[in-house]
Amino acid sequence: MNILRNFVALIKGMPDWHEKYNQDMSYLYDEVNGAKSDGIINTYTHSKTGTSHTLTGAGAIMRFTARAPWIAGDAVTVNGTRLNPLNLEGTPLPAGAFVAGMQVVAIQDGQNLQFLTQSYTDQFASINSQMENKANKDSMKCHDLPLAEGFVPFESAGGVPWNCSYAKDGLGIVHVCARLKVLLTTEISYKTHLATLPTGYRPQVPFSTVCGMRYSGDEGRPLCSHIDFYVNGDIYIFPSFNVTASQITIPPVSFFGS
Known about the structure:
Layout: H1 2-11, H2 17-37, E1 42-43, E2 45-49, E3 52-56, E4 61-65, E5 75-78, E6 81-86, E7 103-109, E8 112-115, H3 120-138, E9 143-144, E10 151-153, E11 164-168, E12 173-182, E13 192-196, E14 207-215, E15 222-229, E16 234-238, E17 245-256
Parallel strand pairs: 1-4, 3-5, 6-8
Antiparallel strand pairs: 2-3, 4-7, 5-6, 7-8, 9-11, 10-12, 11-12, 12-17, 13-16, 14-15, 14-17, 15-16
């Protein structure tokens, strides 16, 4: 039964099985021929009339050369007994499971006939599904950063708001970037609350990063400061001294969210 284990391992659950099939088929044919000579796999004849496939031979494990393709809705009989055609997953055999001229291996198990083959249609559908899932996983949806009172997204001269958002990618990494306009007319003290991230987008451990500021006076001279991200989602800025700020820039920041 070594041939069956190898064949199932080759085909079952492998999105790129057809590539592996091309690489290893000569090796499998050697095993199939060896199993045949040992009396494990039996040669059957195949024919098709209408939607009915007929297999004739002896033994529960069979190999035959398909004389016609398998189409969805087809039926199969083995030595006059109608059986349930199934694939490796135990579901009805799909269209394109085999085509004319193809070598097919099947096993009779009670009222079921399990084919050790899988349709290209199913494989391509599986690959497309995996690619779509990966695309959905890799895509990110941006959300507006929940700002504290007294802060709004900065707007350019044309009234276009700058980015002020957060998002999480498929790996669970949160990304934050913002440029804020300060509406406060009073000075920003040593520790001022800027925003709060929701659950699922908060850092697993607190950390600090630098940020940029422009403040009233001295013609809006830039000032370097730092901000802290806390595990409860709060974001605070720590100016080096009390200032009446006009803009605050949080550069792109990334961290594992929880």
